[in-house]
Amino acid sequence: MKIAHIVCTFPPYHGGMGNVVYQTVSELSTLGHEVEVLTPMYYAPESPEMPPETPEDVDDALIFQEQKKAQKELDITARQLKPRLQKGNAAYIPQIKKELDDFDLVHLHYPFYGVANLVRKWKLRNPQKPLVITYHMDNRGPGFMGLFFKYYAKFWMPRILNSADALIASSFDYIESSNASSIYKQNPEKWHEMPFGVDLENFKPREKKEALFVRHNLNKDLPIVLFVGGMDEAHYFKGIPVLLKALRLMKKNDTPVQVVLVGEGNLREQFEFEAKGLGVGKLVHFVGKISQEELPYYYNLADLFVLPSVNTAEAFGMVLLESMASGVPVVASDLPGVRTVASDGGVVVPPNNPEELAKAIVGYFIKNNEGLSSQVRKIAEEKYNWGPITQELSELYTQLAKKVQV
Predict the structure, then answer these.
(1) Which domain holds residue 189?
(2) How far is CA 361 from the centre of its chain?
(3) Is 73 helix (H, G, I), strand (E, B) or coil?
(4) Are residues 19 and 93 in the same domain?
């Protein structure tokens, strides 16, 4: 089948949705499908006749060139469509309705503000072509953005989701607590539970890399706790301040650990300032953005991985799978969807609770956890292998194609 996957972000942009699509499409291609990813062009290249006018334009042009270079190294690349309007990860791309006419099946990854409703309209014009929608997460936000998300979830989301022939959730645990819960209850037969998978070859147990200890001035006598995630406003829910407060409590109780934080964004400077204000600046190492090639070695560096997200904007936690596949146990917030994964590979704690997070981290290092590394790796192999997951998705595509044609 000729299949379109539509997503608001895609590698080399660091984000869970884009990475899920990349892995899914890579596997689908091995099954004989012709798959194409459609995503926004985030930075327009400058033409030779139109030199950059501002420093911001120069930065955007350089980032665009970096993206194009990085995409050439991927075995699956996305076709970037130029938006008419754009803000953050939202984009209005009216031409996408015509682009989709060439495909046998369309798979939308929701949320995608500005495009999701265009896909719905395309489906109304093409009822004979299957539409699949994966519901990745709710969106939350402060102020005006929060009000917009609530309005969209109440008015537009039901129309968009109900236009699909099949709906996919990474876990029913999450959907039952999400903004889409009423749609799930109304049409449970439309929904399919398919967890996301992990690249088991890329993320696997290895020896700790000596060069990373030197590069980041890490103390070999202190355990290493790892965090991986965005540090921009779109990822405010990741809970870094909760982790920093937990670290202060551990230091006060004379049970300190060192924390390595991988990620970048406009909130990073604020987090660094907060770490110093809490008196844990020397125990925290902000390493910034790293390459996809280096990322697995940072997981191998860790003794424990922590995902302290504060609300249901965190729906699954791909980083938990990457950690488990690397043989590193996890501590994560007790949130729908997230707990489904974390309970397999470690422990869950109440969200937004530095005291309980500190207890869980200290408790892990006090207990005898011999054998836990191989245990979490085995769980990743058995439950989160992309091969069987994508095979199930391919079979769903085939069933829908036959059903819609009839």
Answers:
(1) 2-197+385-405
(2) 23
(3) coil
(4) yes
